Amino acid sequence: MMGSSNKEAVDASLQIHKQIKVVFVMGGPGSGKGTQCSKIVQEFGYTHLSAGDLLRDEVKSGSENGAMIHDLMNEGKLVASDVIVRLIVKAIQETDNDKFLLDGFPRNEDNLKAFENLTKIEPDFVLYLDCPEEEMIKRVLSRNQGREDDNIETIRKRFRVFEESTLPLVDYYASKGKLRRVDAARSVEEVFESVRAIFSSTEVRPRPDRHCNCFSFLRSFCR
Ligand SMILES: Nc1ncnc2c1ncn2[C@@H]1O[C@H](COP(=O)(O)OP(=O)(O)O)[C@@H](O)[C@H]1O
Ligand SMILES: Nc1ccn([C@@H]2O[C@H](COP(=O)(O)OP(=O)(O)O)[C@@H](O)[C@H]2O)c(=O)n1
Ligand SMILES: [Mg+2]
């Protein structure tokens, strides 16, 4: 067992010591999170961190937690928050970028609390890919990525977890005015049109008062 002072020292070393911008990308299994994130990366230069991919890499790496993570994922259950949060924070620390898409995170309130406690980071906004369940099931069953959890029995369990644990967080962000909801039941390109509009409106533009300052200087010169 790790002593508490030792654990705090480890947590301190995991803090993020740089200014970063984070967008949470939420949606049920098969709603298109990974697909849309790839397009956002290409057009807006974010780094894409998929919580599921980080966990799958951890299983492949043969880490001591690997077997436990593998079993939970195959049951469609959520992995302990400190495990996924540590993987995310480590990936952020190791990446030389200042803007990140967290795909598939947070999945429940406990995920969010653990992330906030460790990083003190608030997302800029939350992108929610809203898709009917029948469409998501169709997509997951035909995505052929060799994922052990893409079978109908586990998919049904993942949907229940999404409804019971993740949807309340979606509502929470809606109530805070931070939710950007997109109809994800359309084609990839149509969905991305909406996504692009959301990200374009958050990009920093030149401040208009720079021109004002220039004009006011000229005015004072001519006076
Ligand atoms: N808008 C869409 N229309 C049809 N198929 C889609 C769409 N978006 C994604 N897909 C396909 O559906 C499957 C699931 O998409 P994915 O991005 O892996 O979803 P998620 O990461 O939310 O589980 C993939 O095979 C992907 O190619
Ligand atoms: N925050 C998270 C994200 C994923 N996971 C696990 O990883 C699995 C796959 O997540 P994923 O994001 O790759 O799944 P999709 O929504 O992309 O289909 C989930 O069903 C959970 O078992 C988790 O435990 N905690
Ligand atoms: Mg995914």
Automatic annotation (TrEMBL):
Gene3D superfamilies: P-loop containing nucleotide triphosphate hydrolases. Its cofactor is Mg(2+). ATP binds at G30, S31, G32, K33, G34, T35, R143, R186. Keywords: ATP-binding, Cytoplasm, Kinase, Nucleotide-binding, Nucleus, Pyrimidine biosynthesis, Transferase. GO terms for cellular component: cytoplasm; nucleus. Its main location: cytoplasm. It is found in: Cytoplasm; Nucleus. CDD domains: ADK (cd01428). The keyword Transmembrane does not apply. Binds 1 Mg(2+) ion per monomer. CMP binds at N111. The keyword DNA-binding does not apply. One of its GO terms (molecular function) is ATP binding. It catalyses: dCMP + ATP = dCDP + ADP; CMP + ATP = CDP + ADP; UMP + ATP = UDP + ADP. GO terms for biological process: 'de novo' pyrimidine nucleobase biosynthetic process; nucleoside monophosphate metabolic process; pyrimidine nucleotide biosynthetic process. Its EC number is 2.7.4.14. A ribonucleoside 5'-phosphate binds at R56, K77, L78, V79, G104, F105, P106, R107, R147, R158. Signal peptide: none annotated. It is an enzyme of class 2 (transferase). Monomer. Consists of three domains, a large central CORE domain and two small peripheral domains, NMPbind and LID, which undergo movements during catalysis. The LID domain closes over the site of phosphoryl transfer upon ATP binding. Assembling and dissambling the active center during each catalytic cycle provides an effective means to prevent ATP hydrolysis. Belongs to the adenylate kinase family. UMP-CMP kinase subfamily. Catalyzes the phosphorylation of pyrimidine nucleoside monophosphates at the expense of ATP. Plays an important role in de novo pyrimidine nucleotide biosynthesis. Has preference for UMP and CMP as phosphate acceptors. PANTHER family: NUCLEOTIDE KINASE. This is UMP-CMP kinase. It comes from Oldenlandia corymbosa var. corymbosa.
